[in-house]
Amino acid sequence: MSDVLVEKRAKSSLGTSSEAIYKMVLRAISSREIQPACILDVGCGVGQLIPYVSDLCKTYIGADVVRYQDFPDNYDFCKVDLDSGRIPLPENYADLVVAIETIEHLENPRFFVRELTRLTRPGGWIFITTPNQLSLLSFMTLFLKGQFNAFQEGPGLYPSHISALLEVDLIRMARENHWREVSTLFSLNGRIPGFSRQYPFLLARVLPKRFSDNILIVGRK
Fold first, then answer.
1. Taking a C-beta distance cutoff of 8 angstroms, is the pair 195, 97 a contact?
2. How far is it, in rounded angstroms, from Cα 162 to Cα 108?
3. Alpha carbon distance, N-terminus to C-terminus of the chain
4. Cβ atoms within 10 Å of 90's Cβ, excluding its own
5. Where does the chain have alpha helices with state H?
6. Alpha-carbon distances of 167 from 118, 209, 216, rounded to whole Å
7. Is the full-model pTM beyond 0.90?
8. Separation of alpha carbons 135 and 83, rounded Å
């Protein structure tokens, strides 16, 4: 795929994700008492993760196919085409490697997971978030329209979103890369089908897999 098309696909996402996703990542860090000296944010977009983790780490590095205008000037940035090349950083680079709402944009998710694993220090952690295909919203859209909700044609969706992954796919890729302490979490934030409103938080806590729009897989190298 040409560089122009890759950048166009990336920019269509605006380099942002929802607050619920970043809070999910922070919950996963806090519950495991992770204290990373270095965080590598792959597919960093405008750097929305930074306010959530800046007090937790000494070093933050963002990596993406484009440097968005709103990405802060005082943080390091690494430009990379995640579809066609390795991230130009050494092995065992970061204590925590995070990819927030990035893997669904890529042509080769398995290569991407191998690359994230390569960049993680032994004993370090890898976090990957993506749309949750097992949510009620996604199920209903699949039943009614024959496609997952986050992969319909439209702004920020297809052709920006091209790789729909189930929870089992994420777990299999984690095992293929010999991750330890593998688990999945959910955003506890999901849109009610046919409405712009979200499910009540307590309902999402009871049935997180069905009432969360996003999933996070966590593992340790």
1. no
2. 10
3. 31
4. 8
5. 3-11, 19-31, 50-53, 109-119, 136-145, 167-176, 201-206
6. 22, 10, 9
7. yes
8. 27
